[in-house]
Amino acid sequence: MPIVVRIDVELARRKMSVGEFAERVGLTPANVAVLKNGRAKAVRFSTLEAMCRVLECQPGDLLEWVED
What we know:
The protein is mainly α and 68 residues long. The protein has one domain: 434 Repressor (Amino-terminal Domain) (Orthogonal Bundle). It contains five helices and two strands; from the N terminus they run βαααααβ. The protein has a two-stranded antiparallel sheet. Helix 2 (18-25) crosses helix 3 (29-36). The protein starts with a strand and ends with a strand.
C-alpha cells in the first residue's frame, strides 16, 4: 500500500502507549493496531483530527505516501 501510517513513530517520540493513545483518541486498542499495521482502508477526518490533537502534530506526520 502506498500510504504508510506512522502512528508508531509519533507514539515513540512522545513515549505514549497504544492504550493511552487509544483512550485519548476514542478508539479501541485493536483499531489503533489496524491503523498502525496498515490494514485500514479508510480513516475518518474526525479520527485523524483527534489523533493530531492528542499527538500535537499535523496529518502529514502520521500519513506518508510511498511510491510502490
